[in-house]
Amino acid sequence: MIGCAADNTSPERQITPGEVAQDDSHTGDQYRQLSIRNKDPILFPTELEAPEQDDSNNDSSIEKPEKVDVKGIYLNPVSLREDKIDQFIDYVKATKLNAVVMDIKDDYGKLTYDSNIDMVNELGSDSNPPIKDLKAFIKRLKDEGIYTIGRIVVFKDPYLIEKRPEYAIKRNDGSIWKNGAGTPWIDPYKQDAWGYITNISKEIADSGIDEIQYDYIRFPENAKKVNLEVTYDNPENIDKQVVIQNFLKFSSEQLKDKPVYVSADVFGLVTSSNDDMGIGQNWESLSPYLDYISPMTYPSHYAPNTYGIGNPDAEPYELMKNAMQDAVTKNEKLKQNGEDPAIIRPWIQDFDYKRAYSVTDVKNQMKALEEQGVTQYLIWNAQNVYTKEAVN
């Protein structure tokens, strides 16, 4: 095992969004057949305009990073500290891994690097970051042959809501809605808030990072309950999945001249569901607008009898096999319809939740991926304590 636990991260918060279990975190609050094609014009944000860019950097012919079969691990803000990062560089280089997913905008809404964006500085979102010089940090990793992915938590942002409550999801009485853990969210319908996210995306794209990964690019789970409690800023009654898709379209437009790929994390059941599960995530509406898509297929988070598996947590190989079969099938159908779907790169479980997870459990997930022709994966452990024997 290798890694360092994030400060104040309790064991129960090592989990990530629980597809059927409906847990409310990818990192934990401490640290994670309908195809919609919107034909209406996209209303882009107006208040948070992007900073002026040097036109010399906006060359439409700019080359993207070399595509590689990514095999990576997640690094929380603590692991990005100068006194911690070397052990993870050494770990990646000593194994068959070749990539890291690093928090850029974390679950609290705090940035892990020193930003030059006016609004970030005004809000203090980047106060006391673990990364002082992002460009130098990224260069250091890339010089070691490590593919770099920056994770941006999108609509779960308690820090922004504290400073700008007008962007929050509101309860029916007008007060700020919070989830079961007491965390407020950005209302995805409030397009003025989108520019805050995309300005951060553009800034890190200019740092030399290989890929931007959007997490919490969705509405809160437990949708039936939440829908009764809140009033979204949605006078035109636009479907949730159209809004999430439009955010991706907007982000893609903002990043089109940047040498960076774009990916997103989605609930595990998105690989199999025919609707958006009330959270705005639908495979067919998202995959064509991404370079990579990462379903969070953690066996411990599936309900009993999913895919006919009595206890999915005890059968990680069978669970992953079924989930990937459905994901591959969805991408094949998109190709048949003339779409260019995202490359599948799932998250796999390397953490204890309902039971202790073994080397065999982690390897069995990898085996299922390989057999389904899925050649990439990301490994999740919120505390960054990883099983080296699984990736030797």
UniProtKB/TrEMBL annotation:
SUPFAM superfamilies: (Trans)glycosidases. Residues 72-386 form the DUF4015 domain. It holds the Pfam family DUF4015. Gene3D superfamilies: Glycosidases. Residues 1-63 are annotated as: Disordered. This is DUF4015 domain-containing protein. It comes from Ornithinibacillus halophilus.
